[in-house]
Design a protein that fits this description.
single chain, mainly alpha, 11 helices
């Protein structure tokens, strides 16, 4: 496990820092696991454990600050739990090879979106409480499926949809995002634990590094760190993408 820790822990620390300063840390943490050569299902599962530890700290902080709109969150959390459990079970039904092929498509698309987004997404919608709850709950379920199946970019997608479609202000959207994201991580982690896919010791160690990165990023480096964050994401994804491509047998026919 020492080899895996030497590769994963520094990158998961950086992923936590990136999440704090710019968002998109999952685009570094999941590839970090996969660069070790571990089976894809174990990478996704163990990444969920370290992500759960990081989001737990952030969620508690938001809750204590009063940023989570609990009246809406209480409806969204069950939907997020169900969606994420469904997504995790779908991932488990797909073979390792097919999962890698799917990632060759999903990762570049997610990265392009996360790296090129600008500004906030607030709309002028003024929905009733009932309609807001319905819309937010649907968003929680759909993004929950995505997070259970794959994950990176979940927080960004939630904020986009909660502000742009549900019409929430950015502070409430951020708070609700934390509650939903924590729920999706819990649900997917439980599914992966039941199916014995989580490397618990590695996940716990990586989780500590993720928390440390989040803390350092939140201390006061937000503006200075955003440019560095994008460079790191690009470098890690390029290395990961090339490594993934070289694993496929059909490439031997090209050489």
């Amino acid at each position: 496990m020492l080899r895996e820790c030497l590769i994963i822990c520094p990158l998961v620390f950086i992923a936590g820092y990136i999440d704090a300063v710019a968002g998109g840390g999952g685009l570094v943490s999941l590839p970090a696991y996969m660069l070790t050569g571990l089976p894809t299902h174990q990478c996704i599962a163990t990444n969920k454990m370290s992500a759960f530890m990081g989001t737990s700290v952030a969620t508690v902080k938001y809750a204590k600050s009063g940023y989570i709109p609990w009246k809406t969150a209480l409806f969204c959390i069950p939907c997020a739990l169900c969606g994420s459990a469904l997504g995790a079970n779908i991932a488990l039904m797909i073979s390792d090879t097919i999962l890698k092929i799917i990632m060759l498509v999903i990762i570049p698309l997610t990265a392009v979106y996360v790296l090129t987004r600008k500004g906030d997404f607030s709309s002028e919608r003024d929905l009733s409480f009932k309609l807001t709850v319905i819309v937010c709950s649907m968003i929680a379920f759909v993004i929950g499926i995505y997070d259970g199946f794959y994950g990176p970019g979940t927080g960004t997608f939630l904020i986009l949809l909660l502000t742009g479609i549900a019409g929430m202000d950015i502070r409430k959207a951020n708070g609700l995002t934390k509650a939903i994201n924590w729920s999706t991580n819990v649900s997917a982690l439980v599914v992966f634990l039941i199916h014995d896919q989580v490397l618990i010791s590695l996940g716990l160690i990586a989780g500590v590094f993720n928390i440390a990165g989040n803390y350092l990023g939140a201390v006061g480096f937000q503006k200075k760190g955003s440019g560095i964050a994008k460079v790191v994401i690009i470098i890690v994804l390029v290395v990961f993408f090339v490594r993934l491509l070289l694993e496929f047998p059909f490439l031997s026919l090209i050489r």
